TrEMBL record:
PANTHER family cross-referenced by the UniProt entry: ALCOHOL DEHYDROGENASE (PTHR42901:SF1)
Keywords of this entry: Oxidoreductase
GO molecular-function terms, A-Z: oxidoreductase activity
Name of the protein this chain belongs to: SDR family NAD(P)-dependent oxidoreductase
Coiled-coil positions: none
Family per record: Belongs to the short-chain dehydrogenases/reductases (SDR) family.
Keyword Membrane: no
Length: 266
């Protein structure tokens, strides 16, 4: 049964909805990435935790293992400097060690500063386009052969409403990612090559990147990442069926928002 868009923040998968699936989550060390990775593991997935910050990625690993969920894998990678070969090696390692890839969660992002275009540092621009756009192409391109072997493959983009003044390279990259989603979805919307491709914008979350870039905001006024994971889980699992090419945008959630699926994790 197709879920109404407005209901997806309250979506709760069946206990084994992601059982046996392998899902790669970028930016898994903290924030939304950690919350999504942990929730995927909660519902049965083996999660590949990709990040450059090893100490915090190990914290995510420990949280998943200590909860009794399937043991995840850690893959250290700096998306700012990684090459096409690095991503190819990643997929070869996933194939060799885990044998499959069912989902790709493109969550990692970096907002260096709010700057008008006329004052933008060109080196900063290049780095931000690399992390927020080009690296996602390289990773996706490398993962496509593995995903196409899966019975129900999915790619989910964490998106942000960023076509605004002073968002600079971040805004351009996020607009590019939306176009990338449309292109991928159209190219894989047929029975022979189907991959479910969607973007999700759950509004602001209480993350370190948010706090850094909005220092005057009370962090407690922003929803915790754990309260916002449901739409990502929906599109990473079979309940989403053939829904593809969608760009879901949700209104800002209150600071005390709670996802009902969290109760089963406690």
């Amino acid at each position: 049964m197709q879920q109404d868009v407005q209901d997806l923040l309250a979506y709760v998968p069946s206990a084994s909805a992601l059982q046996g699936r392998v899902i790669l989550v970028t930016g898994a060390a903290a924030g939304m990435g950690k919350a999504i990775a942990t929730a995927c593991a909660q519902y049965g997935a083996t999660v590949v935790l990709l990040d450059k910050e090893m100490r915090r990625t190990e914290d995510t690993y420990d949280a998943i293992v200590n909860a009794g969920y399937p043991e995840p894998a850690i893959y250290p990678l700096d998306m700012q400097g990684a090459t096409a070969k690095d991503y190819f090696d990643l997929t070869e390692n996933i194939r060799a060690q885990l044998g499959r890839l069912d989902g790709l969660m493109l969550n990692a992002a970096w907002l260096g500063s709010f700057t008008p275009i006329s004052h933008y540092d060109t080196e900063l621009w290049s780095k931000m386009i690399m992390v927020n756009l080009h690296a996602n192409f390289l990773l996706t391109h490398a993962c496509l052969p593995l995903l196409q072997e899966a019975a129900d493959p999915a790619i989910v983009f964490a998106s942000h409403a960023s076509k605004k003044a002073f968002y600079g390279a971040f805004g351009v990259a996020k607009a590019g990612m939306a176009a990338f989603c449309d292109i991928l979805a159209a190219e894989h919307d047929d029975p022979a090559h189907f991959i479910r491709v969607n973007t999700v914008d759950t509004g602001p979350a209480r993350t370190s990147m948010r706090t850094l870039n909005f220092p005057g905001e009370n962090p407690n006024s922003v929803a915790r990442p754990e309260a916002l994971v449901a739409p990502y889980l929906y599109f990473l699992g079979a309940d989403a069926g053939k829904r593809t090419g969608e760009h879901l945008v949700f209104a800002r959630q209150p600071g005390d928002a709670h996802w009902v699926g969290e109760a089963s994790a406690t």
